[in-house]
Amino acid sequence: MRYKGKIKELNHIIISDPSYDESVTCRYEKNNLKEKNWYVDIDIKPTVDKIEDFTIKGTEFFLFLSKDRRLSELRENGTIRYLSGIEFEETEIGMDTACVALGINEKADEIIELRADWQPECSLNTLTDGLFGTVKEGKIQDHTVFIWLSGYLDEDTGYSIEEIVDYLQYQLNITELEKDITKPMIIRQQDILEKMTEIELRFKEITKENPKLLQFFNEDNRFSNITFAGTYLAGIAVRNEQRKEGNLGGKIEKSPYSKEQEKLIEEYTDLRVEFEKTEQEIENDIDI
User: Fold this and answer.
1) Of 141, 156, 179, which one is at a domain's C-terminal end?
2) Of 130, 150, 179, which residue is a domain's last?
3) Residues 213 and 223 sit within 8 Å (Cβ to Cβ)
4) How many Å apart are CA 129 and CA 168, to the nearest integer?
5) Taking a C-beta distance cutoff of 8 angstroms, is the pair 265, 226 a contact?
6) What is the residue range of 33's domain?
7) How many CA atoms lie within 13 A of 26 on its CB side?
8) DSSP 215-259
9) Phi and psi (nearest 5°) for 82?
10) Whole-angstrom distance, CA of residue 270 vs CA of residue 264
11) Dist. CA 45–CA 64, nearest whole Å
12) Same domain, 26 and 152
């Protein structure tokens, strides 16, 4: 499930076990940012992992705060796409009191003020010590341009997805928060198109000067176009099926393409079907 929103002012942020002070390395704190109008993306979903005879259920989420979506973007499954020139530092978020707290500005100040309290209200109870997640801070010439966080909460904590999102919204002063229905599918489409382009270029490379194909197709140079090739093979399949049923004369036709070339055609066709399916899903969501 994907959410998007905004943070109007970002000056101070803490992601930490609330009992930790500045001397602890497995915490994240940034002050004097003096930033305005940052974007927020939350990608959150239930998870099920099986380890031998045990089934572990929980909720995984990725939080992404960014200065400019042209510089960086949260993709699927927590991956980040960012411009070259952006460097990032990683910080693992540890816990010793089975809880973690996130907050900006006055909420960050509150986390510091309640440092002596056991599992304060400004924190999420994790039921266990150890590692909560990882923070990645993206920078351009020492200027912070994005903050990425991965986090995980076991099902036994009792938090629903809605409660986790509500916590993040409150602690991070997120405004204009709403479900982002089409974004995941648009990202999926972009990834599909990239794969299709790679396959298309590879196909052209291994077919355009192939002696067997040049001889077979004679002066018709469309054979190195993967869309044409897919249509051509589909035509062969239809005609051969008609011959098997006795509805068409002539010999069974064989593909002029090699197994490697046919595999690329099949992969490209499958991706095109998947792309068209996501387009339909986006249209359906817009209609709703």
Assistant:
1) 179
2) 179
3) yes
4) 21
5) yes
6) 2-179
7) 14
8) HHHTT-GGGG-HHHHHHHHHHHHHHHHHHHTTSS-SPPP--SS-H
9) -145, 160
10) 10
11) 15
12) yes
Tokens of 261: 């070339």
- Residue-wise pLDDT for 196-251, tens only, equals 999 999 999 999 999 999 999 988 889 999 999 999 999 999 999 999 999 999 99
Nearest residue to 140 (alpha-carbon basis) of 177, 94, 88, 184: 88
Structure tokens at 259: 């197994």
Instruction: Provide the 8-state DSSP code for 196.
Output: H
Distance of CA 164 to the CA centre of its chain: 19
Find where tokens 């056991």 sit: 118
Distances (CA, A) of 53 to 38, 49, 50, 59, 152: 44, 11, 7, 20, 21
Per-residue pLDDT of 100-155, as tens digits, reads 999 999 999 999 999 999 999 999 999 999 999 999 999 999 899 999 999 999 99
- Global pTM reads 0.68
- Indicate the number of domains in the chain: 2
List CB contacts of 3: < 8 A, sequence separation 6 or more: 40, 41, 42, 44, 165, 177, 178, 179, 180
Beta strand pairing status for 80-82 and 35-51? unpaired
